[in-house]
Design goal:
The chain has 461 residues and is an alpha+beta fold. The chain is built from 9 helices and 4 strands, in the order H-H-H-E-E-H-H-H-H-E-E-H-H. Strand 1 and strand 2 form a beta hairpin.
Length: 461
Amino acid sequence: MLLLPCWWVLVTVVGCSTIDPVQPQSLDIPGLADASMTAGEPVNARWWQAFHDDYLDQLIETGLEHNFTLQSAWARLQQSQALARQSGAEQYPSLDASLSRSRSFGPDSAANNWNAGLSATYEIDFWGRIGALQQQGQLNALGSAATVRVAANTLAGEVAGSWFGWLRQQGRIALLTRQQQRIASALAVTEARFNRGQAAVSDVWQQQQLQEGVVAGLVADRAQQVIYQQQLAVWLGRSDWLRVDAVPELAASRSLPELPLQPPLVSLTALQQRPDVQQAWFALQSANAAVAVAVANRYPRLTLSASYSAADANLADVFDHWVGNLAAGLVAPLLDGGSRRAALAASQASVRAAVAEYQQTLLAAAQEVQQVLVQEQQASDLLVSLTKQLHLARQTEGFQLARYRRGVGDFLALLNAQQDVLALEREVLDGHWQQLQYRIQLYRSVSHGDFTGADAGEPQE
């Protein structure tokens, strides 16, 4: 009776032990030490809402519910959580019950014998081995939760990119249709001048060639729109959208949204909350817990056990003849050929590798953000220039068309002006789309992806 209180005191004391986390050397990342690289607001958890596109919101919510890659990540998380619970089971005593019946035979008789028993065992975690195993399991589960957030953030970015790509193709198709109508009007003017002997037949052919170029563009853009539709099908788990003749419930009248005015606030703290950086962090701490396990394995293990057993020929009388037993066992490693020392060295090397991987992941995250900020600024400046060029090209086209209609202009000059306008109209549309792509990438780069409930262990309903 005196052993039980001591047992539970030891359980309480040892069970509270924890492992200090590894703190990698801080990196000097210019532009991040002062908590921001650019002015702006902190990124919303559901960053895609910054585009104010309710249909995009609906698409991403559908993807979060039905995407198969995300469902797989959820299953892996649940597996890791179960393994974490399993790794912590050793901190509690185990209790087993047994009941058996045997029959013995002699020269003149046979007899039955019933055996019943209860046995409990518990390892006193003097060196923190069991606590380290439990903590390692919990860290692995947190790493799996970060994997869910990586998958969810990737899904949101890919759905947004594919949706805006679909809208871009919709805009290009509408633009090319208008261009086709304008070229048809210009072709009618050229044919009329040819019929009056005021233009060469080559002028008609060149105008027709320009018209066919627009037709070819329409063919390519319609095919690309179907490809974006099929990409959405994969990310949303919508197999019915994979058919070429499928008509998804996409609003044909929609156009690309305006670019949000301010980029998000970018800080070192924000980068450290990225799911891939968090994943590397938990992998590092899990490796550190493995070192604690390897260290503890080199020391003796003390196990307490208690059992009650009874035997009788009659089952009804078995429980009247109990015999109790209390025991303590000590197992200490003496010779193992250097196996435990090697295991410890391997775990320590794993920690060094995990430190380097964490720092590399954080550095790559900072570089990704810096790069996309440069690219977005470049896209913005380019779009301003393209808009100005388009304005000038339209003025030139109008001037050359007026001269050509009066019979004093050169057809080649008019044709060049028309080609410039057609090309710049497409480039302006594409430039706006490119801005949106870079903003999506920027939002993804600084998002913690915590919009699925992964850290709480429950998928989003």
